[in-house]
């Protein structure tokens, strides 16, 4: 059993080539939309559109409960890596093994208050844009949202030769009544510009302590991803205390499972046997 988790601005089609590779090796593969994407819907208009990290992670646990899945290999990138990391850290009994692109991505709110080097800040331009009303309005506007997310694809995957149809297939998942609210809340929450929900406070307190992850883990770094930390995984190695392997993927950008599906699928099977 493998659960593959997408990031932003992406959707389930990041795994369109990974899923059949894994299914061909006998795995049952589940690729859910994250809240605010695709076919997901909130049951009530009164529900707070919360996208703090622990809320999204508990969505995965709730999905596993609903499908009566006790344990699964969790694999993700971007928001999906963070979500998988959190489930592995807080609910290790539910995670058989972990594949995490970019390693340990649990958000530390206190650390996020400190500035990065200017070049690193530049890569996060959209996070700061979404902190403004102007950015929120851009995400609400269909045409501006389309062009903004396409720009992110182009800049964070500089070597990926995808066509218009590939992008449009994913962009359809952004035409969601809560997409802008979820994306804006996620990035504002990371910068302590928006509150989460009190019911997640206990989980966030545990995550603030940077808990280690003990399940078998294989981390992937993408060489051409502007968010890849230097040091070939050294910056987060101490967060993983169980069986562990790290790989760097030359020439690959941010959307690892779609840019390098065979390498990603191999990482999943190898993590499952660590």
Descriptive report:
- With 274 residues, this protein is an alpha/beta fold.
- The chain has a single domain, classed as Rossmann fold, CATH 3.40.50.
- The protein is built from twelve helices and six strands.
- It has a six-stranded parallel β-sheet with strand order 2-1-3-4-5-6, with helices on both faces.
- Helix 2 (53-66) crosses helix 3 and helix 6 packs antiparallel against helix 9.
- The model has no long low-confidence stretch (mean pLDDT 97).
Give a quick summary of the entry.
The protein is α/β, with parallel strands linked by helices and 274 residues long. The chain is built from 12 helices and 6 strands. It has helices spanning 18-23, 53-66, 79-90, 118-123, 125-129, 133-140, 142-156, 164-171, 179-190, 201-208, 256-259, 261-272, and strands spanning 2-5, 29-30, 72-76, 95-101, 217-222, 244-249.
CATH level-4 homologous superfamily: Alpha/Beta hydrolase fold, catalytic domain
Number of helices: 12
Helix/strand/pairing category: alpha/beta
The neighbouring-strand order within the major sheet is 2-1-3-4-5-6
Strand content is: 5-15%
Mean pLDDT: 97
Instruction: List low-pLDDT spans.
Output: none
**Count of distinct structural domains:** 1
Q: Radius of gyration, rounded?
A: 17 Å
Structure characteristics:
single chain; 274 residues; alpha/beta; Rossmann fold; 6-stranded parallel β-sheet; globular
Summarize the SSE layout with pairings.
Blueprint lengths: L1 E4 L12 H6 L5 E2 L22 H14 L5 E5 L2 H12 L4 E7 L16 H6 L1 H5 L3 H8 L1 H15 L7 H8 L7 H12 L10 H8 L8 E6 L21 E6 L6 H4 L1 H12 L2
Helix pairs in contact: 2-3, 6-9
């Amino acid at each position: 059993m493998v659960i593959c988790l997408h990031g932003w601005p992406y959707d389930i089609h990041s795994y369109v080539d990974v899923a059949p590779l894994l299914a061909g090796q006998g795995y049952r593969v589940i690729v859910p939309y994250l809240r605010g994407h695709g076919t997901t819907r909130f049951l009530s208009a009164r529900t707070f559109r919360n996208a703090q990290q622990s809320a999204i992670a508990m969505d995965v646990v709730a999905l596993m409960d609903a499908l009566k899945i006790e344990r699964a290999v969790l694999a993700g990138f971007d928001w999906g890596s963070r979500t998988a990391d959190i489930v592995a850290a807080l609910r290790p009994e539910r995670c058989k093994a972990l594949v995490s692109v970019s390693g340990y991505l649990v958000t530390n709110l206190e650390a996020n208050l400190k500035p990065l080097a200017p070049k690193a800040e530049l890569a996060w331009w959209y996070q700061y844009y979404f902190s403004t009303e102007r950015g929120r309005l851009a995400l609400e506007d269909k045409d501006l949202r389309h062009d903004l997310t396409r720009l992110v694809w182009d800049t964070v995957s500089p070597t990926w030769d995808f066509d218009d149809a590939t992008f449009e297939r994913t962009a359809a998942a952004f035409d969601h009544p809560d997409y802008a609210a979820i994306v804006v809340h996620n990035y504002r929450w990371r910068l302590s510009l928006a509150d989460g929900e009190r019911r997640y406070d206990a989980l966030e307190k545990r995550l603030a302590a940077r808990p280690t992850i003990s399940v078998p883990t294989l981390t992937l770094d993408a060489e051409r991803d502007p968010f890849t930390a230097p040091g070939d995984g050294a910056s987060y190695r101490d967060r993983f205390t169980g069986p562990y392997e790290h790989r760097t993927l030359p020439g690959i950008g941010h959307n690892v499972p779609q840019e390098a599906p065979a390498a990603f699928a191999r990482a999943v099977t190898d993590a499952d046997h660590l």
